[in-house]
Design brief:
Elements: H1 3-16, E1 18-20, H2 24-27, E2 28-31, E3 36-40, E4 49-54, E5 58-65, E6 68-73, E7 77-82, E8 86-97, E9 103-106, E10 113-117, E11 122-130, E12 136-140, E13 145-147, E14 151-153
Antiparallel strand pairs: 1-5, 2-5, 2-8, 3-4, 5-6, 6-7, 8-11, 8-14, 9-10, 11-12, 12-13
Length: 156
């Protein structure tokens, strides 16, 4: 299955807010650089806080419900974390902007606008991250994020 197909399937499932992890490589993640996240007892903002996961701690996602990922980390610990704090790193892969119009690049998925990337351009993707709205974004070479739904995999 091509990465674009996987990205589109993930994006469609996110909109339903209940997502099974569809590939083992997508299951390994880390807390985004310089951040940490509360681990909660249930997939809700008002659920009890039971732990924290700091940047660099690897975890595995088993499912995503209501914008919260059920993760396992540190030798069997588990709980629910806000998925927007997690990044799914991948081996660098080239994608093409699948639109003719320019694509906005942002500092973070929910962050400020940085610049535009010309439609049809090729860009290197280094990982995936979810926004607070549950949208999948691609982390691109030289910093910043673009919406994954506007990318298509390039055969090399």
């Amino acid at each position: 299955m091509h990465k674009l197909h996987m990205v589109l399937i993930v994006a469609a499932l996110i909109s339903a807010l209940v997502i099974p992890v569809i590939a083992d490589t997508a299951a390994v993640c880390v807390v985004h650089k310089g951040e940490w996240v509360w681990v909660r007892s249930a997939p809700a903002h008002d659920a009890d806080k039971i732990d924290t996961i700091r940047y660099g701690v690897e975890c595995r996602i088993s499912e995503i419900v209501n914008q919260y990922a059920h993760v396992k980390y540190r030798d069997g610990c588990e709980g629910w974390v806000d998925v927007s704090y997690l990044e799914i790193p991948i081996k660098e892969k080239v994608y093409q902007v699948a639109t003719e119009s320019p694509l906005n690049k942002r500092e973070t998925p929910d962050g400020r606008y940085l610049t535009k990337i010309k439609g049809g351009s090729r860009i290197s993707v280094l990982g995936w991250r979810y926004s607070k709205k549950g949208e999948l974004w691609a982390k691109v070479y030289r910093g910043g994020y673009v919406k994954a739904e506007y990318l298509r995999e390039v055969d090399q």
